Amino acid sequence: MALMTNSQPGDVGPFDAPQYGNLTGINVTKVALEYLGGVALDSGGNVYTWGWNGQGQLGIGMPDIFGSCPQPANVNTALIRAELFNCRAYAGGYQLVDFFTHPEKYAVQYARLKMAPELTQPTKIVDIGAGYHHVVALDEQGRVWAWGYNVAQQIGKTGIGTAGWSSNSSASFNFPQLVQGLPSNIAKVWGNNGYLDRGQSFALTSDGQLWSWGANGAIGKHGVGTTTATAAYQATPHQVVFPAGTVIVDVQGGDYHNIALDSNGNVWSWGYSYIGDGTTAKYQRTPVMLPPPPGMAAGTKITAISNSYDNSLMLDSNGEVWQWGYLFIGPCSGCGTVVKTPQKVQFEPAEIARVGYTPIPTQIAAGESVSYIVDQYGRSWAWGDGRYFGFGREGGYIDNSSIITTKAYQYPQVVGDGDTQIYDSRLKTPADGLLQKNQLNGVRYGTYGFNSLHPTIYDDKYIGATGAVAAWKNLAFKPIPKIRQMIGSRSAYIILDYHGNIFKWALDGSGTIAWGNGDYFDSRYDFTGNGRDGTFDKYCYEVVLMRSDGPVPPPPPPPPPPKQ
After folding, report:
1. Measured torsion, CA atoms of residues 80, 86, 88, 93, in degrees rounded to the nearest 10
2. Are residues 249 and 261 in contact, defined by beta-carbon separation less than 8 angstroms?
3. Residue 21 pLDDT more than 80?
4. Stated pTM of the model
């Protein structure tokens, strides 16, 4: 997705974003976002998940039952994490999906589903994707696996996914399921950024043929010309229809429409209303190639695409970014605007003057309300509506959510310390929060957040912290590190740096941010969580490092001297 520039991951020039080394002991190489959690792939081919498990998204074979499962004792001890429980509501830290390393442990789960085991030997994962409440993964043998929410059959299984399913029961497909009916040469996988019953999954072959399964409806998101009357949902993958000879290199699934990029730099779109061809309220049930928008130079190719819900972006070979769809760009918070034809995104001139250089886009990331450009120095620029805190701005949370701009500013700029302020006008000191508000046995304790659901680096329980937690504290107010991957969604946002660290911020709690594996759980502060699953259902509107709470690895060796 990158435009070639003179900046490389290891460059340290005057404008390059800094790098801090690996801070968690997990070297993440790719991330994908769900609505209330996420999934990460490490350099060893292992998969980790975090967040809410209400639809089995953790992929560990444990149901949630929407919070009714018995919880371990609320005490702070590593022994609690070793106890066995038959359900799991959340993961507050990096949860290894051990199905791929120890498939033999899932015999009971297979028996419950009355299925023969689909995996009998360990395998490594080479690609991942995610949707609203589901995950897809590609293994080294070219097999595709999926788990989580299946109401639209996006897992690749028929039926809703639970015997006697109701709105108050969790999914049966809470561990990876083999997707049947795909060719053997799958090279990449994706989930879509769309709502529950519009969930889709995609797989791309090594020769550029796109396959999809899941929701279709009346809008024709399958891309094969069918409608609700013929195939509302489809568990069996089908090949999306493009003209003969078209080689697809990327796909970005949205809520009501999807877009794809071919090897010749053309963008294709299908679905409903937000196609980008100048029309609205249109059912486009097979992909159509978008014409060059007004103002685009002749012969320009598209090098990258991104789509979140119905906000679409594309980056061209001249370094220009274009946007169309259902956009939140003002004039009021939450006001949606339909843009029928791609329009050029502009940088704010005063911001360019402030930072001292002209940004060249190398990556793009669409969020529903805020979108992002990553420039040649690994720094991000953002524009849109901050109603869901998409700018990741350190400071007062109301000031953060009040930003609305059609031009891109350099956001987020620094790592936060937690949500200590309601307004920027409040003093930026720990005492601005709920310092030592409560007492237990005559000993005061408390959080410095503006309420108890917002942990901060100043909270008493982190005094004397070591390892990854100390590193987490020490990052406060430092510049955002050089960005390898960036993702926007409805109300959660993520940055992956070049040393395998994940940085996260979000409107919603419910486990969207990993606060650690339980070693620092303290029931005096943490009303949601436990010693096994960690602290969860906490909030942070500022950018924070996602913690593993493990030891910090040694710093990377210095680069070799240049050859003479």
Report:
1. 40
2. yes
3. yes
4. 0.91
